[in-house]
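Could you help me review a protein record that somebody else here produced? What it holds is a sequence and that sequence's fold in token form. I need someone to confirm that the token line plausibly describes how this chain folds. Take the sequence as given and treat only the tokens as open to question. This is what I was given:
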Amino acid sequence: MKEIFGNLLGLKASQIKRLENLGRRRIPTQAIVSYELCRDLSRLSTEIGRQVGLLVERSGKIAQVLVGGVDRIMIPDLREYRLAPDRLRGLRCIHTRADDMGGLTQDDLTDLSLLRLDLMAVITMHPDGSPAQIHYAHILPGASESAPYRIMPPIPPFRPEIDCLGLIQALEAELARQKVEEKDDASGERALLVSVFTGGRKAAMASLDELKELAHTANIRTIDTVLQQRKKADPRFLMGSGKLDELAILALHRGASLIVFDQELNPSQIRSIADRTEIKVIDRTQLILDIFAQRAKSREGKLQVELAQLKYILPRLVTKDTAMSRLTGGIGGRGPGETRLEINRRRARERIRRLEQALKTVQKNRDQQRRRRSRMGLPVISIIGYTNAGKSTLLNQLTQSRVLAENKLFATLDPSSRRLRFPRDIDVIITDTVGFIRDLPKELMAAFKATLEELDNADLFVHMIDISNPRHPEQIHSVETILDELNLGSIPVIRVLNKIDRVDPDTRDMLVKRLGGIAVSAISRPSLKPLSERLQAAVEHITYPGSP
């Protein structure tokens, strides 16, 4: 047994010795607690005026003795004990409580659900210190998220046998069956999407819908969404601690393997939330970086994504393993040497320097390509827009190309350039670019500098707008904001209102009038004729030195 956990201040040496002796007892596997141990717990708890508890393994061995206060008891960190979606913790908690305080409290039931204990049991006591009743509850597979447990009728302390081990094994068998069914109808990660917002609910809902699309693109199944409005974000957990406990219970009950926050989390918040919930936690930025890592195909794209990931991860490199702090300085070294964490950080910085050097070479190559195109005297048209607005589809239709085009966010990462000839024998270079998104992570902005600098060479922007998306006004604003941040606001822009086949004619006409764009359906080549004529008219006024 480990040392006694809890409040020992003011206890006599003889009382501490009796607490230690409790830890050497064993409990029959069919009983929650033996009558003799129940009686001794109650007497000692009454004598010291504090709650006394036990954490018991399935074999009946007592793993930990707990000492609390008058009205509550704390449970220590249990991360060393197994925990999986189809398994319980392997421990049950038993503690005392005065009879006039009732049986199981909401704190007991929260601990039962959050820690996935085998059982939670409370021994109520008479004023003379004798045990009154044993109240207990267990997790209930398949129950509603609001009450994922079952409170059983109390039993007398002199008959505590309930086939405890058989009950726990039956619960785990049902959990395992549910896990198999979840695997049959879903693949990949199962995530809860969370947004903690301080502004308007409408904007938060729209942002959460976009997060859901990002999750779909990353092959993550969204099993539920959670919103919490606060006047001010909590500096430690972002949301309130009570709400976070509810979130953890919901995640465990629904079999979630991941929690995705719509807001960017700082390193300490990620650690605090992950420690509290014992589930993998990421934020919106990390999700976007993961999508980019899946989508990057060219060497250049992979370099840029890896650089962005390392810059994001570097301040978040932490370790909880005490073995990581062992000396690694070598024989004869003095002082603490270099810890494993410091080695990891140093290697990450070295890799960042190498990637930045490699990307400088990429940038030079792009500069040479731009100069060659400039000598050819060909105008450059860049297709820009929010992600999944139809940029690659438009490029394919105009140039009869086969650039990858999918109904997913960030289907295209690497810019694709094609030569396009208009009917009046005017040639141009038309380029498809990486899609923009609201609050594009600064790590990506820095890493994709070489790609985004392609836009500097453009003579004309074609801004693709998905007018079938109810969030298109915010998307237009996001794209224009990024252009301003890149100092590209002076380049002329033609707005293209895409996906007109998904809106009614009256809405289309109203948007054309309001936004001043050309309405098209990128999947329908005939609808592109007005756009081709507009592009041809625009490039006729662009001249280069040496052009005919």
About this structure: The chain is about 40% helix and 20% strand. The longest strand covers residues 131-139. Residues 187-290 form a domain with the Rossmann fold fold (CATH 3.40.50.11060). The radius of gyration is 31 Å.
